[in-house]
């Protein structure tokens, strides 16, 4: 688990730099909202196409191998993107990155679940989130600080993005030493069909992931540009604000276990969804800079306390043999939601309709709350033989 955490830290550091600078880098290269939307749509599109086949392959050939290969491809993609100037080259780097991310999404929490006993699973997954978000925050600070001190590489931001990719390359080296998680496919056993009809638990959580993916793309991929355009901030201040936001995410992730112990799992998830929905909706009404920061930090803390609970609960409701399948179908449905919302978010960005993007996000989170109360809440804590099977 220690190796997993420090390699995930390299991952988070690189992502923090990229989240701060990639859109600004593309803008500096002369690309507009259409290209930004296309680049941000690559990852969910690849997840949409490959998540289920990759989950199947992970069960057949080994989750650890799939996780390692995914980490390597993501790192290579992070290096390739700042090297290219052309639209085709940048998109090629993003596709390599996206294939790696799809492999990680199909296996990561299934691997963590096999490392830890069931009673420690909520804590373990919240620890993974906390470690990752903390390093993204440090990466965001570096993304705001380093461009002024590193030499130009295509743009002011290219050298820092390339450095982030090189840091990411440390992660696949470290993950060579992870304790292997065996294949779920026994020798001589007939392989399962590539696309099988998901059971009730997988389908229920996959639809929830679709709504979650729909909530992400209106604002998430474009937050740095929204802050820059709405409040006319410098890159260093954007990096500082994004780092502050990551601190809020970190606080949310480490508070998960305390919230569950204090309020119980079912009520905690509902309460957090209410806060996130109201915070996003309030951001849609043209908040002042100070109020914008306060609401942004509130929704970040609440959402990051919520997502580890969702992931650990989705892992718990199926037996181990179905966990990669659960993750891959959730990634598939989340990818559909991401594609729709990232495209729509790009349109909002192009028309400077930032308030609409926040309002849509708040509305979708309200839909998540309704779906949770109707279909998910009754399954939590119901991980008996009925929910552990096919």
From TrEMBL:
Membrane spanning residue stretches: 28-54, 66-85, 91-115, 127-150, 156-181, 202-219, 231-252, 264-283, 353-373
Cell compartments where the protein resides = Cell membrane
GO terms for CC?
A: plasma membrane
UniProt xrefs under InterPro entries: MFS, MFS_dom, MFS_trans_sf
Q: Which domain of life is it from?
A: Bacteria
A Pfam entry, by short name: MFS_1
Q: Which protein are we looking at?
A: Major facilitator superfamily (MFS) profile domain-containing protein
Q: Which residues form the Major facilitator superfamily (MFS) profile domain?
A: 1-379
Give the membrane topology, semicolon-separated if more than one. Answer: Multi-pass membrane protein
What keywords were assigned to this record? Membrane, Transmembrane, Transmembrane helix, Transport
Give GO MF terms, alphabetically.
transmembrane transporter activity
């Amino acid at each position: 688990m220690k190796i997993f955490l420090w390699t995930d830290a390299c991952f988070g550091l690189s992502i923090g730099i990229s989240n701060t600078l990639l859109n600004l880098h593309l803008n500096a290269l002369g690309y507009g909202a259409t290209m930004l939307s296309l680049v941000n749509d690559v990852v969910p599109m690849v997840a949409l196409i490959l998540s289920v086949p990759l989950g199947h392959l992970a069960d057949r050939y080994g989750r650890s191998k799939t996780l390692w290969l995914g980490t390597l491809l993501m790192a290579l993609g992070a290096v390739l993107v700042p090297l290219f100037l052309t639209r085709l080259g940048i998109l090629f780097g993003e596709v390599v990155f996206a294939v790696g991310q799809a492999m990680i999404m199909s296996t990561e929490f299934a691997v963590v679940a096999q490392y830890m006993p069931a009673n420690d699973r909520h804590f373990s997954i919240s620890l993974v989130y906390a470690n990752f978000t903390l390093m993204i925050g440090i990466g965001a600070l570096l993304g705001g600080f380093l461009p002024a001190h590193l030499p130009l590489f295509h743009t002011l931001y290219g050298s820092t993005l390339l450095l982030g990719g090189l840091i990411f390359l440390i992660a696949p080296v470290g993950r060579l030493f992870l304790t292997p998680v065996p294949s779920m496919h026994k020798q001589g056993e007939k392989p399962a069909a590539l696309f099988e009809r998901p059971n009730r638990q997988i389908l229920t959580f996959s639809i929830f992931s679709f709504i979650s993916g729909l909530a992400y793309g209106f604002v998430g991929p474009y937050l740095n540009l929204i802050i820059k355009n709405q409040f006319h901030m410098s890159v260093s201040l954007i990096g500082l604000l994004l780092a502050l936001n990551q601190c809020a995410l970190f606080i949310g992730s480490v508070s998960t276990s305390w919230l569950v112990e204090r309020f119980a799992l079912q009520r905690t998830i509902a309460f957090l969804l209410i806060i996130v929905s109201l915070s996003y909706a309030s951001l849609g009404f043209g908040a002042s800079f100070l109020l914008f920061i306060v609401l942004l930090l509130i929704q970040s803390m609440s959402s990051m306390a919520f997502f580890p609970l969702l992931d650990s609960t989705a892992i718990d409701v199926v037996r181990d043999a179905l966990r990669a399948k659960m993750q891959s179908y959730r990634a598939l449905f989340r990818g559909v939601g991401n594609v729709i919302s990232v495209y729509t978010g790009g349109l909002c960005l192009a028309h400077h309709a930032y308030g609409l993007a926040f309002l849509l996000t708040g509305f979708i989170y309200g839909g998540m709350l309704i779906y949770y109360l109707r279909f998910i809440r009754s399954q939590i804590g119901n991980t008996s033989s009925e929910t552990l099977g096919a």
